[in-house]
Amino acid sequence: MTIIDTPSTDTAPACHGAAPSAGPHGYSGDKEAHLKRLRRIEGQIRGLQRMVDEDVYCIDILTQVSASTKALQSFALVLLEEHLAHCVAAAAAAEDGGEELNAKVAEASAAIARLLRT
Question: Is residue 13 part of a domain?
């Protein structure tokens, strides 16, 4: 399993210069849908654990790993889209947003690079 190095929540920049744990973030409007989706993914991972515990055939487990991976990637893309539409767009619209915009674009580019490495 690959562990992705992500910034901690106490140092990651937030939208509009707010504290990192403060909202609203781009995903806030769909928070419940996102949580539901993540719970479904969590269920897939638990299913993988059960499959290993029950000595299920390797290829069947790999098929489920692939499905879980795709589900996480899909979630990540939605989250990235919301970040671009909310946080990056807000930085672009800000009167003095030049530095903040550059930081948000660099942050999004780094996130995209991490997604592509997985």
Answer: no
